[in-house]
Write a structure and sequence with these properties.
Length: 255
């Protein structure tokens, strides 16, 4: 391309240069006036098209790429809790287990008032001494702390589950809505069922977990159902509180 033809398309180079300098590389130089008289625009040859394409990429290519990065950045997605955390019974305190009547492991939980119908799996302690929750991907699964009483045995049987996961609400999303006198039904592997009546529902800070009330000895068969609640702490990736349901045995039935 000769110097006359270059001046016809110098605006593209100036526009591309303005894009580069807009990112803090220094002041934009003033465009140089063309040294040729006005004339009809020349037909674009191959080199001219290459220069125009380069200018357009410089002008629009970067913001498109930046927009894509922002929309697909995983850090922009609000985090959710990795699991519901429930402290284990304090060290040195024996877990209360009934000896008068063996009870088969629980297999299913129904709470009609809040639309819960979920299988139960046995859980223990994780390496950190916290009750191991059900797998995070299992949104409709309840964990039973198998080192304590089974529901229907004298003592506090502990059940826990997620309030939500990365994919949405989980099994105990509505647990906080339970009210006294709501009915809880637990089915066992041998087909027997127990019906428990809710006595109270409370929300407590995880930093003030009521260990004695949850795990303390009881005169009759009771259950504790626990999930997360309160405000979500994005830094800790966990809810600040626990929602705890206390219920007592009403009756036992056969298959």
């Amino acid at each position: 391309m000769d110097s006359d033809q270059y001046s016809d398309y110098s605006w593209l180079l100036v526009l591309a240069a303005s894009k580069s300098h807009s990112h803090g590389t220094g002041p934009l130089p003033a465009p140089q006036p063309a040294n040729t008289p006005s004339r009809r625009p020349r037909k674009l040859n191959t080199f001219s098209w290459m220069m125009i394409t380069a200018g357009l990429i410089a002008v629009v290519g970067t913001p498109m790429a930046m927009t894509y990065r922002v929309l697909t950045d995983a850090s922009a997605v609000p985090p959710v809790p990795l699991y519901v955390s429930v402290p284990a019974p304090p060290a040195g305190r024996p877990v209360q287990v009934a000896t008068t009547r063996p009870v088969a492991p629980p297999t299913h939980l129904d709470i009609e008032a809040i639309g819960v119908s979920a299988p139960i799996t046995q859980v223990g302690l994780d390496p950190g001494g916290v009750i191991e929750p059900p797998p995070l991907e299992e949104t409709n699964l309840v964990g039973w702390y198998g080192l304590g009483p089974s529901p229907g045995e004298v003592g506090p049987a502990v059940l826990l589950g997620h309030v939500d996961t990365r994919t949405g609400p989980a099994v105990f999303a509505r647990l906080r809505e339970l009210r006294p006198q709501s009915l809880i039904t637990i089915t066992h592997s041998d087909g027997t069922r127990e019906m428990f009546l809710v006595e109270r529902v409370e929300k407590v800070a995880k930093t003030s977990f009521p260990t004695a009330k949850v795990y303390g000895a009881t005169a009759d068969a009771e259950v504790r159902i626990i999930t997360c609640g309160g405000v979500f702490d994005h830094q800790a990736r966990s809810y600040a509180d626990n929602v705890i349901v206390y219920a007592s045995l009403q009756k036992q039935t056969g298959t």
